[in-house]
Design goal:
The structure holds two protein chains of two kinds. Chain A is 38% helix and 22% strand. Chain A is of the alpha+beta class. In chain A, strands 1, 2, 3, 4, 5, 6 and 7 form a seven-stranded antiparallel sheet that branches. In chain A, a hairpin with a 4-residue loop joins strand 5 and strand 6. In chain A, helix 2 packs across helix 3. The longest helix of chain A has 19 residues. Chain A starts with 6 loop residues before the first strand and ends in a 10-residue tail after the last helix. In chain B, a hairpin with a 5-residue loop joins strand 4 and strand 5. The longest helix of chain B is centred in the last third of the chain and has 30 residues. Chain B is globular. Chain B starts with a helix and ends with a helix. Classes of the chains: A alpha+beta, B alpha+beta. At the A-B interface, strand 1, helix 5 and helix 6 of A face helix 1, helix 2, strand 5, helix 5 and helix 6 of B. Strand 1 of chain A pairs antiparallel with strand 5 of chain B, so a sheet runs across the interface.
């Protein structure tokens, strides 16, 4: 669990809007509906979804809690299949030999090579297990603050898509511009002034 | 609101300027607790790295990384004089008795390598909720410091006397090296 580890890397978000109806029930339903499948699909290159922080490999939100004090805490799991290039090279060499033997030729065309590569990649993709990556998500619902415990770009992009799909709420990344727009109590004149600034030059 | 990707790129300089200001506050012994207006005693120190960048005019960039404990101040201020700006800084923040270290990136305000104070709670099932809440509260304290100082900086940058006061103070600090 990243949140209780000794060091943290965190991306922060602001959440606009509220959930209609019973928040707890709606969040539970959305987590269950968008949980990562328990059984890995052998055809999907990438599979992503929610899982309880205390049970990353058994996405059971009935058995494990997602509410800690006044916060919601769960994990985003992204399972990705990645075929090492050397493995593709090995199987390509074997398949090329087979093809040459079968055709009686001592060469194969560029098109045949590309078809073989597709075939080899397809077979290996089915055989190879996906590697799971787990990122904790802490949601202070009342304050509209959301924390993703990673700063990896790909994980952030997955997270933003899945969060919006699950809760119908758009998470807005916090960075200088959005901090001013979403987290300041500046008047609109002050905001306009801030957004018309230019970088400071300290050089003479 | 602007498109997020456009806004990120257009205003990332505000985060870099902010980090330069943080460095100035630290080196000039500014009253951080006073700026934060909390009852806590908060101090900041530069940790083990500062990264600066300088646009060289021909679309290329010069990157200056200063690493190691007591990250070299003079090299950094010399770079500032040449037009560089801070893009990343490692900070040590003390809040009362508790010490936190982290690296903050200007353009995203992302926090990496955040080390929070040690906790007495264990990862046992019966203490897990307490541990989560304690860890969360540690993280929130640091975000509170970062956000309050950022908005304080923006308040100063947009005030009428910025060019005659705030900016001049930073320039004077840089000139002392």
């Amino acid at each position: 669990m990243a949140l209780i580890s000794s060091t943290h890397s965190v991306s922060r978000y602001h959440v606009d809007g509220k959930i209609e109806g019973s928040v707890l029930e709606e969040v539970r339903n959305a987590l269950i509906k968008n949980a990562i499948p328990k059984i890995e699909s052998e055809y999907d290159e990438i599979s992503a979804g929610w899982t309880p922080v205390e049970s990353p490999y058994n996405p059971d939100f009935e058995a494990f809690s997602f509410q800690f004090g006044t916060y919601f805490l769960f994990s985003l799991r992204i399972d990705k299949k990645s075929i090492p290039q050397k493995l593709i090279q090995k199987y390509m060499a074997l398949e090329i030999e087979k093809k040459k033997e079968k055709s009686g030729r001592d060469f194969i065309s560029k098109n045949e090579k590309s078809e073989l590569k597709e075939h080899v990649t397809d077979i290996l993709m089915h055989k190879i297990p996906a590697i799971p990556n787990i990122y904790d998500v802490l949601w202070d619902y009342e304050a509209g603050n959301l924390y993703l415990y990673t700063t990896q770009k790909a994980a952030n992009e997955f997270f933003e898509t899945i969060f919006l799909k699950s809760f119908n709420l758009k998470p807005v990344r916090l960075f200088p511009y959005t901090m001013i727009e979403k987290k300041s109590d500046f008047s609109s004149t002050k905001k306009d002034r801030a957004l018309s600034l230019a970088p400071v030059k300290y050089s003479r | 609101m602007l498109d997020i990707a456009t806004a990120y790129n257009k205003y990332k300089f505000l985060g870099n300027d902010y980090l330069t200001w943080i460095w100035f506050l630290i080196e000039t012994g500014a009253d951080i607790s006073g700026l934060l207006k909390t009852g806590d005693v908060v101090t900041l120190e530069v940790g083990n790295s500062i990264v600066l960048e300088n646009n060289l005019g021909d679309k290329s960039k010069e990157k200056i990384s200063i690493k190691g404990d007591q990250a070299g101040l003079e090299e950094g201020t010399t770079a500032l004089k040449k037009g560089a700006f801070v893009t990343q800084i490692n900070l040590i923040c003390k809040i009362n008795e508790d010490e936190y270290t982290f690296t903050i990136k200007g353009e995203s305000l992302n926090v990496t390598g955040l080390k929070t104070p040690k906790t007495d709670l264990s990862k046992n099932d019966d203490e897990i909720e307490g541990l989560v809440l304690e860890k969360a509260s540690f993280c929130f304290k640091i975000f509170e410091v970062i956000d309050t100082l950022f908005l304080n900086y923006m308040d100063q940058r947009t005030s009428d006397d910025w060019t005659v006061k705030g900016l001049q103070d930073i320039k004077k600090w840089i000139e002392t090296y």
